[in-house]
Write a structure and sequence with these properties.
There is one protein chain. The chain has one helix and six strands. The longest helix has 7 residues. Strands 1, 2, 3, 4, 5 and 6 form a six-stranded antiparallel β-sheet that branches. The radius of gyration is 18 Å and the shape is flat. The chain has 120 residues and is mainly beta.
Length: 120
């Protein structure tokens, strides 16, 4: 199960479809194209560092995504275009007047339906 303390990271997740042409094989033919459902998440660098240890493992979700499972893409060569990327920086001034910057990362989680069907 996805850790409850990290559930807020998925609150603003966007459902997307990852599409990539099949890779060329050594014999010159092309493999099957990749088409997968995923969640695109823009999170703070600090949150990304918290979820990094969970990469490449599959976790079941609760709440809005109940019945689904996610896998954070970090270094799988088939999903290179969707590896974590710079999500920009937001400059803010605190209530005390001190300026600070918050760095963001854009990451993708593969999204799989793991609901079990039951015959009636």
């Amino acid at each position: 199960m996805w850790p409850e303390e990290l559930s807020a990271i998925l609150d603003n997740a966007e459902e997307v479809t990852l599409e990539s042409p099949g890779r060329q094989r050594d014999d010159g033919t092309h493999g099957e194209a990749i088409r997968r459902q995923a969640l695109k998440v823009r999170m703070t660098q600090a949150d990304f560092e918290r979820v990094w240890p969970l990469a490449e493992a599959r976790y079941r979700l609760q709440g809005r995504f109940a019945g689904m499972a996610i896998t954070l893409i970090v270094n799988n060569p088939h999903y290179g275009p969707w590896h974590p990327a710079d999500g920009g920086t937001v400059d803010t001034v605190s209530d005390s007047g001190r300026a600070y910057s918050t760095r963001y990362v854009v990451a993708h989680f593969l999204l799989d339906d793991v609901r079990e069907t039951v015959d009636a």
